[in-house]
Specification:
GO molecular function, one term: [pyruvate dehydrogenase (acetyl-transferring)]-phosphatase activity
CATH architecture of the largest domain: 4-Layer Sandwich
Strand content: 15-25%
Number of strands: 20
CATH superfamily of the largest domain: PPM-type phosphatase domain
Shape: globular
Helix content: 10-25%
Number of helices: 11
CATH topology of the largest domain: Phosphatase 2c, domain 1
Protein name: PPM-type phosphatase domain-containing protein
Largest sheet: 6 strands, antiparallel
Length: 510
């Protein structure tokens, strides 16, 4: 087992520096790609420029061309890794999308979603969409980052298709979302709730008095309970995004027998709809809002350590998933055979703290979660616990599938953007883990705030320049001892992708 684990870690971490594949043809598949590898469409790069950007030695930072800008004057910059994989496994997408009813007046989803993308100045973006929004549908802004692993295939597919799944899910509740004066009906086809709090609540005693057979009860038993949860409109948007992630993951699984869709990817998605930002995260990318210099975290990283109890519970409930090779228990270090019968610190899914247990032969199995920080792995193989894809991922040299422990469901956080007045330096920063591995929330906020303070507030390029500066700080400068950042710290050798989204323009949306 130890040899197997060492081989698994070497294969996962080695990349091309160890002579491994970039993952896109890892299985030797002769299947065609669903979408060709490329950099984000909004960068407008030629094939030669894409090839030049893949220089693992120079690591040039790519930014938006002057002739193309994203909605809200969004800033974007990216850089390839220092040799971990042949291709840049990060992908990005940004669109302005209209959700329209299916022809015929029904709001059920159609097979081909109606979407439009706008690459225009913030004072003109989406004008054609907004003109028809009141009568035909709803417009939402969409930003997304995908961080691939074991190949770029899943990240490329998700960057092309996830927004369409979100569109389809929102289409199902389009009529309800447009009628913001009424709470969503509990059951479709019923009249919506007219006013909050209009339902009659019964005490337990009153309910029991009205039960069939109770003294004084009528012949026909009344409804036992009258209370009903009040579901808000924003919960429907959250649910639509959660279901879209699940549909995207299911599509990747269905189509992997038809197309070569390599590896998996994390996903960080932002939707601006009806005055609110919805930030959905599945993985270890991160989003923060910087408002008046204050940092507001908008995502949570999902790692083997942060999801230890969920993973351990699954291993406890379904031990066959561990393949008789792993234990769901955690110990401070590997248990040795000479320690059988002794007492050692441990914890399981019920515990946050630690206690002692008598070591048994079963405890000699390799831990389900092993390592700390960025080195923590699930089944000695993968360092993220949520994302899309990875359906074929197995423990090295075994038939133990890891996918049951990996969730495609995102955590969705909501920011009521239009409830606040934002200045030109208030921004939402999205970054893949290559940024956050070397810079803290506070360091990023300080860097962005300081850079924007020295720019003309009316300069539409200021956010792209700030994104470029941020990527430069995280990548560092190549020296004799590798890439180095401030205070001679080790810079990021990973792919880095960054959006800087000014919130000021959200206040100007109708």
């Amino acid at each position: 087992m130890l040899t197997r684990v060492k081989s698994a870690v070497a294969n996962f971490m080695g990349g091309i520096m160890a002579g491994g594949s970039n993952g896109d043809n890892f299985s030797g598949s002769e299947l065609p790609l669903k979408f060709p590898y490329m950099r984000p469409e909004f960068l407008g790069l030629s094939q030669d420029e894409i090839e030049c950007s893949a220089d693992h030695i120079a690591r040039p930072i790519l930014i938006l061309k002057e002739t193309k800008r994203l909605p809200w004057a969004t800033g974007y910059a990216e850089v390839i890794n220092a040799g971990k994989s042949t291709l840049n496994e990060d992908q990005a997408c940004c669109e302005v999308v209209m959700v329209k009813k299916k022809p015929g007046g029904s709001s059920t989803p159609s097979k081909t979603p109606t979407t439009k993308r706008r690459s225009s100045l913030p004072n003109g973006e989406g004008l054609g969409l907004r003109e028809n929004a009141d009568s035909d549908g709803l417009v939402f802004h969409y930003w997304a980052l995908f961080d691939g692993h074991a190949g770029s295939g899943a990240a490329v597919v998700a960057s092309r298709l996830l927004q369409h799944h979100i569109t389809e899910q929102l289409r199902e509740v389009l009529d309800i979302l447009r009628n913001s004066a009424l709470l969503p009906p509990t059951c479709l086809g019923e009249e919506p709730n007219l006013t909050p709090g209009c339902h009659r609540a019964l005490t337990r005693a009153a309910s029991l008095r009205g039960a069939a057979g109770a003294p004084g009860s009528p012949g026909t038993p009344p409804t036992r309970f009258f209370t009903e949860k009040k579901v808000q409109h924003e919960s429907l948007v959250m649910g639509a995004m959660e279901n879209a992630f699940k549909e995207m993951d299911a599509q990747i699984e269905r189509e992997k027998s038809v197309y070569n869709i390599s590896g998996g990817c994390t996903a960080l998605v932002v939707v601006f709809l009806m005055g609110k930002l919805y930030v959905a995260n599945a993985g270890d990318s991160r989003a923060i809002i910087i408002r008046s210099g204050e940092v507001i975290p908008m995502s949570t990283e999902f790692t083997p350590e942060s999801e230890r109890q969920r993973l351990q519970f699954l291993g406890y409930m379904q031990p066959h998933l561990l393949g008789n090779e792993f234990t769901h228990l955690e110990f401070p270090r590997r248990v040795q055979r000479k320690e059988v019968g002794k007492k050692m610190l441990y914890r399981d899914f019920t515990m946050t703290g630690w206690a002692y247990k008598t070591i048994e032969d079963e405890d000699l199995k390799f831990p389900l979660i092993y390592g700390e920080g960025k080195k923590a792995r699930v089944m000695a193989t993968i360092g993220v616990t949520r994302g899309l894809g990875d359906h074929d991922l197995k423990v090295h040299d075994s038939n133990i599938y890891i996918k049951p422990f990996l969730s495609c469901c995102p955590e969705v956080k909501v920011y009521p953007l239009t409830q606040f007045e934002h200045g030109p330096d208030d921004v939402l920063v999205l970054g893949t883990d290559g940024l956050w591995d070397v810079l803290s929330n506070e360091e990023v906020a300080e860097a962005v705030t300081g850079f924007l303070a020295n720019c003309d507030p009316d300069d539409l390029h200021r956010y792209t320049m700030a994104a470029q500066d941020l990527v430069m700080r995280a990548r560092g400068v190549l020296r004799d001892r590798g890439w180095r950042i401030s205070n001679d710290r080790l810079g990021s050798g990973d792919d880095i992708s960054v959006y800087i989204i000014p919130l000021l323009y959200g206040n100007r949306q109708p």
